[in-house]
Write a structure and sequence with these properties.
This protein has about 170 residues and is mainly α. The protein is about 75% helix and about 0% strand. The protein binds hydroxy diiron-OXO moiety. Hydroxy diiron-OXO moiety (OFO) binds near residues 20, 50, 94 and 130.
Length: about 170
């Protein structure tokens, strides 16, 4: 049993995870338009991960007896100047998600809601990896600058990313 306040906060964040999925799906198409097929793959994998995150919140809320609310999703940006621009905006977005997960965890602690605190722990760890991946790519992109060959090498590396569903994940796509 979770409080109404906690379920509302988690429900709101669940919708934010869906926004993240839409954001990365849009970035995938933008990368494709720039001729960066590897980056398009990387963002498509990111989209699928976000759908898993969304479904994790959905399933947790349903298991807690919550009647979930799907909020209207706002339009996502679809114009970027470069792959570096995309990655910098990705990192900024993930830092926002990290702050939101931290706020939710703090709320769970304040409410002595141990089920939600434990549920959120997975996301606390996940955000470290998300931000780290983004920082790595930003560093490499800054190193190569405008060098087309360097960008294509990074694009090729991004093309190697494979979607690996976390253990016990609900199919989301
Ligand atoms: Fe769901 O971690 Fe990114 O947004």
């Amino acid at each position: 049993m979770i409080s109404k306040k906690m379920s509302e906060s988690l429900n709101k964040h669940m919708n934010f995870e869906l926004y993240s999925a839409h954001l990365y799906l849009s970035m995938s198409s933008c990368a494709n338009e720039l001729g960066l097929k590897g980056a398009a793959n990387w963002f498509m994998v990111q989209y699928r991960e976000e759908m898993v995150h969304f479904m994790k919140f959905y399933t947790y809320l349903v298991d807690q007896g919550t009647n979930i609310t799907m909020l209207a999703s706002k339009a996502v940006p679809n114009t970027y100047s470069s792959l570096l621009d995309m990655m910098q905006k990705t990192l900024a977005h993930e830092q926002l998600i990290t702050a939101r997960i931290n706020d939710l965890s703090e709320q769970a602690v304040q409410e002595k809601d141990h089920a939600s605190r434990i549920f959120l722990q997975w996301f606390v760890t996940e955000q470290i990896e998300e931000e780290n991946n983004d920082r790595d790519l930003i560093a490499k992109l800054k190193l190569v600058g405008d060098n087309g060959h360097g960008i294509l090498m990074i694009d090729s590396e991004m093309g190697q990313r494979v979607f690996v569903p976390p253990a016990g994940a609900q199919p989301a796509v």
